[in-house]
Specification:
The protein is an alpha/beta fold. It has a domain of 229 residues: NAD(P)-binding Rossmann-like Domain (Rossmann fold, 3-Layer(aba) Sandwich). Helix content is 40%, strand content 15%. The strands form four sheets. It has a seven-stranded parallel β-sheet with strand order 3-2-1-4-5-6-11, with helices on both faces. Strand 1, helix 1 and strand 2 form a beta-alpha-beta unit. It is globular and about 60 Å long. It starts with 12 loop residues before the first strand and ends in a 5-residue tail after the last helix. The N terminus is likely disordered. It binds nicotinamide-adenine-dinucleotide and thymidine-5'-diphosphate (TYD). The site of thymidine-5'-diphosphate has 12 residues, from helix 6 and strand 8. Thymidine-5'-diphosphate binds next to helix 6 and strand 8.
């Protein structure tokens, strides 16, 4: 069913940063499908993680406009906010991969901290010009800002103290604090969402789930860090998109909302599940059963042991709950990587191979 713009009379005018990435492109599709009357402007620098193919089918839509550009470019952001009469920023753009933040943190500081600051400052200056709708700056963040849990600890809530352990999570924590400060100091309506690990379509090959899917299809080793007992709380990306929709509709400015799937799984168990689904769904695997490919490798430095989200607040105050079980979501995801070889194969570029070699060395030996 296609909904009216929820706010009533006038359509919303969105600036979606990072809309050519994994979650941003899923969200952009979700919004265009459900609110076709709203204006969507995507601003994305098309780094290695941004892919214009992710939005290719939206190009011809009247209400959609893609701009290749950097969120650190203040003049460009000012111009877009003004000419497009933006009332809502959904801020996804980030350097998002922990392993890359360990190898080369510079870009994380630039995009995640300076970029978020640039957007907030531009929105603050633009704010008095917004006449229609209730303005919103939605800052999309991660549960990794809370640090690492022990097995016996309760899941993260919105009052868990920040304790980031990687350059990635530290840069996201800093950007969260900036978004919070703009509400308290300048009364700019910011909301922060802290979400657990996402998975689904359009996920860049470097992350655990797509990496395992692709390596199984190629018959390559499946690198599991350390003892494989680290726990992540997995959420299907479209459940995350619905959660963000709920926050845009009913969230309270100045608040934080944790978003999670209530799906805590050990890495080794997740990889085994993926192997099982692949063995079942993929007709011509080079190595079968694919579990034989599992290879324990040196642990990630500072590897957080466990993440788990308590999503009670968004459930009770805003009425969101996840709908897709981990079993169903993983099957959909595996099927997507099977059907979309043409999407992921070009991403295994020379730059990617160099990164892979730097991170894992030669696992095939
Ligand atoms: P992604 O790496 O797939 O996409 C990031 C996008 O941002 C890319 O399209 C990239 O080109 C763009 N980008 C990077 N630097 C830019 C810049 N300086 N200017 C403009 N565009 C730039 O990331 P993702 O997994 O889709 O994550 C999106 C957001 O959600 C991030 O803020 C991330 O911290 C957060 N998040 C991710 C997860 C997850 O599991 N992936 C979980 C919780 C929160
Ligand atoms: P990742 O997808 O990188 O997400 P994050 O580090 O943000 O949680 O990794 C998910 C988990 O999988 C994490 O505990 C690290 C682990 N992992 C591996 O064991 N091997 C790998 O090759 C990768 C990329 C991740």
């Amino acid at each position: 069913m296609v909904s009216e713009s929820f706010s009533g009379a006038s359509p919303r005018r969105f600036l979606i940063t990072g809309g050519a990435g994994f979650i941003g492109s899923n969200f952009t599709h979700h919004w265009c499908q459900n609110y076709p009357g709203d204006r969507i402007v995507v601003l994305d620098a098309l780094t290695y993680a941004g892919n214009p193919q992710n939005l290719a089918d939206l190009k011809t839509r009247e209400n959609f406009h893609f701009v290749k550009g950097n969120i650190c470019d203040r003049a460009l952001v000012d111009e877009l906010l003004k000419t497009e009469k933006i009332d809502t920023i959904i801020h996804f753009a980030a350097e998002s991969h922990v392993d890359r933040s360990i190898l080369a943190p510079d870009a994380f500081i630039q995009t995640n901290l300076v970029g978020t600051f640039t957007l907030l400052e531009a929105f603050r200056r633009h704010f008095p010009r917004i006449a229609n709708n209730s303005p919103l700056f939605l800052h999309v963040s991660t549960d990794e800002v809370y640090g690492s849990l022990n097995p016996e600890d309760p899941p993260f809530t919105e009052t868990t103290p920040y304790a980031p352990n990687s350059p990635y999570s530290a840069s996201k924590a800093g950007s969260d604090h900036l978004a919070r400060s703009y509400f308290h100091t300048y009364k700019i309506p910011t909301i922060i969402t802290n979400c657990s690990n996402n998975y689904g379509a359009y996920h860049f090959p470097e992350k655990l789930i797509p990496l395992m899917c692709i390596n199984i299809l190629l018959g390559k080793p499946l690198p599991v860090y350390g003892d494989g007992q680290n726990v992540r709380d997995w959420l299907y990306v479209l459940d995350h998109c619905r959660a963000l929709e709920t926050v845009i509709q009913r969230g309270k400015p100045g608040e934080m909302y944790n978003i999670g799937g209530n799906n805590e799984v050990k890495n080794i168990d997740l990889v085994q599940m993926l192997c099982g689904i692949m063995d079942e769904l993929a007709p011509d695997l080079p190595v079968r059963p694919s579990q034989q490919l599992i290879t324990f490798v040196k642990d990630r430095p500072g590897h957080d042991r466990r993440y788990a989200i308590d999503a009670t607040k968004i459930k009770t105050e805003l009425g969101w709950t996840p709908a897709v079980t981990i079993e169903a979501g993983l099957r959909k995801t595996v099927q997507w990587y099977l059907n979309n070889r043409h999407w992921w194969q070009p991403l295994l570029s020379e730059e990617y191979q160099n990164y892979y070699q730097q991170l894992y060395g030669n696992l095939d030996k």
